[in-house]
Design a protein that fits this description.
The complex is a heterodimer of chains A (618) and B (250). Chain A has 618 residues and is α+β, with helices and mostly antiparallel strands. Helices cover 68% and strands 12% of the residues of chain A. In chain A, strands 1-7-4-5 form a 4-stranded antiparallel β-sheet. A 3-stranded antiparallel β-sheet of chain A has the order 2-3-6, with no helix packed on it. A two-stranded antiparallel ribbon of chain A has the order 8-9. In chain A, helix 9 packs antiparallel against helix 10 (347-390), helix 15 crosses helix 17 and helix 16 runs antiparallel to helix 17. The relative contact order of chain A is 0.10. With 250 residues, chain B is α/β, with parallel strands linked by helices. In chain B, helix 6 (148-161) packs parallel to helix 7 (178-194). The interface between A and B is medium-sized, with 28 and 40 residues.
Amino acid sequence: MEKTLNGSDKPAATVKKASWKASILRGSLFALAVIVFAYGFKVTRVSFDQINSPSRQESLTRVLRAIAKPDLVEYEEIETEVGLSVVIPCRDGVPSTAPADPEQPYIVMTPPCADPRSVVTLEGVNFKPFSSGPIFFIPPSEVKLKMGDFETDESGSFKVEAKLPPRPDTAMQRIIAVTRVNVGSPHLTQTAFATWEKIIETVFLALLATAFGIIFAIPVSFFAAQNLMRDITIPMSSLALSVLGWPVGMYLGGAVAGWVRTQSERLIGNPLLTLAGLAVSLVVIWLAGRWAFPAEEEERRPSLALRIGRIAAMLVAAIMTIFFLYLLADIAVVAGDLLEDALGSFGYLGAFVSSLGEILHLLVALIAALVGGAAVSGMFGRLGTLLYRSLPGKWIFVANLVLGAAAGAMIASLLAAGLNWLYEFNDSTKVFSLFILIGAGLGALTAVLTRKRDAIPIGIVIYNITRTVLNVLRAIEALIWVIIFVVWVGIGPFAGVLALTLHTIASLGKLYSEQVESIMPGPLEAVKATGATRLQTIVYAVIPQIVPPYISFTIYRWDINVRMSTIIGFAGGGGIGFLLFQNINLLNYRAASAQMFAIAVVVALMDYFSAWLRNKVV
Amino acid sequence: MLQVRNLTKIYEGGVLALDNVSFEVPTGQFTAVIGLSGSGKSTLLRCINRLIEPTTGQVIWNGEDITSLSEDEMRRVRRKIGMVFQHFNLVHRSSVLTNVLAGRLGYINPTWSLLNRFPKKDIEKAMQQLNRVGIADKADQRADELSGGQQQRVGIARAIMQDPEMILADEPVASLDPVLAHSIMQYLELFNREDGVTVLCSLHFLDLVHRYAQRVIALNEGQLVFDGTPVEIDDNRFREIYGKDAERVG
C-alpha cells in the first residue's frame, strides 16, 4: 500500500539516480577506451611523421608506380647510338664537331673540349620526341661509363649537364646517347611465364593438400563426434586386453607383410608371372572372402569348426591381399617407368603411376600392421568380454587389476620410448622402469576405481583425446608447420603440401565432426533398432546425412588452401609465394606486382568457382 | 511371450521415467500403451529393445533375459523386433528402397553391407513389402520427397523387412491426420493378424485404442496404472490415467 502511495515521486527519483550512475559509468568507460587506444597507439607505434615524410612518400610513389606496371608484357627494343668524338683534355688539332648530316640526330658538347672532371653541357637535336635513354662516355678501352640520362622534349631535343669522367687520353674518345625504341607487337615477359608456372603449382598444391586432408579428416571426424562416441563403453578387462593386443597384432601384421614381401619379390622381373600372380591372388581373395563372409548371417551361432574355418579363410584372404598389393605396387612402378619414357610430354602420367606404386609399397606394411593390430586387439577384447561375463566377481577384480597394470605399463613404456628418443636420457633404464611402475600403478588404480561390473566410457576418452590433438594441430598455422616439413623433405611445394594437409586435417576434422554432432538422431535410432552394427549405423544413418555439409566444407577449405598456398612459399613451401618473396626482397616491385595480380585473379576466380560449385552440388 | 519385470529407468539428473513397471504380453497380441506425454511410454518401448538401457529390472522375451545380453547378442535380438516411430525416422537423403533395405542390416553380413550390397532376394522382398503398403512406385524416390503418410508406410515396411516377431510402435500416427492414422493402424493390424506379429503400440487417441487394441496398459508418471481391455476404460479409469481435470475427446 505504501509503495503505491509514494509511487508518484519515488520512481522519478530512482530514474534520476540511475541516469546519474549510468553517466558516471559511461564516462569511465569512455576514459577507459581512451586509455586503451592511447596505449595501443604507443605499442603499435602509430606515427604520422613517417606518413608525411617526403622521402617516404617518394619511395611509396615509386613502389606504387612499379606495382601499377606489372612486369607482364614487353616489346622488342632496338637500340640506336648517336655518337660524338671528343678530346680530353683540350689540345691542338681538335677535329670538327659539326654534324655530318644536320637532318640526322646528333649531339653537341659545349665547350667542344674540356678537362677531365669538368662539367659540360650536352645538347641533342633531331631525336625522337619524348624519348629517353642513357648517355655513356666511351674511353679507348671501350668500357662504358655512364654520365647520365636524357629525356627529349616535343621537338626531339635535349639539354643535359654532365660531368666528364677523370679519363684524360691522347686518343679520341666518344660520348654516345642511346635511344631504345619499342618495335613489333608486345609479348609476355620471363616473369609472366615464371608467374604462370608458379600459380599453376599453387592451385595444385592446394588441391593435393585438400584431397589428402579429406582422406584423414573424414575418419577422424567420427572419433571427434560426441553423439557417436558417447555410448561406447567397454569392460575393464576387455579394454586392458585390447590395449595389450595392439602391439602384438601390429608386430604380427608387420612380420606377415615382411614375409609376403620376400615371397612376392621372387616374381618381380618376370612380368608374366607377376600378372599371373595378380590374377590368382584376386581369385583366391574373392573365393576365400565369399566363404568367410556369408551374405546373410545364420539364425543360430555357427559351430566352432565352421568359425575356425572362417577365421582361417579370412587369414588366407588377408595374406593374399598383402601379396596382391605388393605385386600391384611393383607392377605400377615398372609400368609407370615404362610409360614415363614412352609418353613423351605426358610422361608425368607415368611418373604418377610409378610414385603411386612406391607409396603403395611403403603403405602395405603399415596397413598390414594396423589391420593386424586392430584384429588382434578385437580378438583380445572379445576374450576380455568373455572373462568379464564368465568369471565370478572376485576373480574379475583380480583379472582387472592384473590386466589393467599390464596395459598401463605397456602404454607408459611406449611413452617412455618416445620421450627417450626426444631427450636421449643418460640413464634410460631408470626412466623406463620409473615409467613402467607409474603406468602399472595408474592401470591398477583405474581397475580399483571402476567397480567390478562397471564399463569404462572409452568412447568419451577417445573423443577427448581426438579433440585435443585436433585443437593443438589447428592452433599452429600452416606457415609454421612448413618450417618443420622443409627440414624433412626440403624446400619446395611438397613441404607446402604436407604442411597444408596437416592443417586441413585439423580444421576439417573439427568442422566435419560438428556436422556429425548436428545430424538428426531419429534415423540413427531407427537403424540401430534394426540390429545394425555400429559401423552399419554410420554407413546407413550418418553418412547420408552429412554428405551435403561435407561437400560444402571441403570446397570452402579448398578455397582457404588456395589462399594459404599463395603465402606458404614465404617459408619455403613452394608455390607462387616463393617467387613473390624473392622479388620483394630484391626490390623488384614490377615482378612482385605481376605475382600479386596473379594471386588476386586466382583467389577471385576460386571464390566464384566455389560459390558456383556449392550451389550446384549442395 | 514378453515379460517385463520391475522395470525402472532413472535418467541422468535423477528423472524417474519408469517406476517398477511389470506386465506380460502374450505372443500375437495387439497391445496399446496409453498415458500423458512424458508418462514414460517412449522410455518403456525403448527399454524393451534396449535403445535405452534400463536402470534396474528385467525384460524377458521368449524365455531369454535380454537386459543381460552383450551388445553383440542384443543385435541378434533387435533384428527380430521391428520399430516404428512417431517422426518416421527415415534417412531423408537415401532412396525409399534403401530405407526399407536397412531393415535387413541385422541379418546380412556387415562386411558386404558396408559396400551397399544387398542380396537379390532381399531387394525382391523389399519391393514386395513396398507393394504391400501400396508405394512400390516410389521405390527410387528420395525419402523426403514423400508425404507424411507415405513416409510412415516406408517406416512400417522397414520394420516388416526384419521378419519381426514383435513390433514396437512409438505413437506411429501422432504426426498424421485422422484418415491417414486409420490407414497406418490398419497396416499394423494387418501384420498383427496375417503374420502373427506381437504389436506394442503407444497411442494418444482412445478411439484408435478401442478400434485396434485387444488390450491396454496405461502409464502415469512412470507407474503402471491400468492393465485391461479397452472397454474397461470408463470415466473413472480415464481420470485415474489422465488426471482429474482431463476431458475425453473422440
